[in-house]
Amino acid sequence: MQDLTPKNTAVEDYVKIPKQEYNLLKEVYRTVKRQAFIVRIDEAERNFAAGKAKSMTVDDLIATV
Which residue from 19, 35, 48, 61 has the fewest beta carbons nearer than 10 Å? Predict the structure, then answer.
């Protein structure tokens, strides 16, 4: 029976990915992150236009941080 303690569950092997595929995966990741950010901006603009914006004083804002 294999011991599955946390020290044995870490992956010790590396996967070799050709440089071209690695660059493609990296670009896909960046594109997906950008799209998610654009969706959030679009959502925020719609909420702001619909009047769903909170307003608070600077002191209250600082107090929440």
Answer: 19
Q: Provide the mean pLDDT of the chain.
A: 84
CA angle 47, 53, 54 (to 5 degrees): 150
Residue range(s) defining the domain that contains residue 25: 16-64
Q: Is the pTM of this model over 0.70?
A: no
Kind and range of the H or E run holding 39: helix 19-49
The answer to whether the CB of 47 falls within 8 A of the CB of 55 is no
Say if 9 falls within a structural domain: no
Q: How many domains does the chain have?
A: 1
Residue 34 inside a domain? The answer is: yes
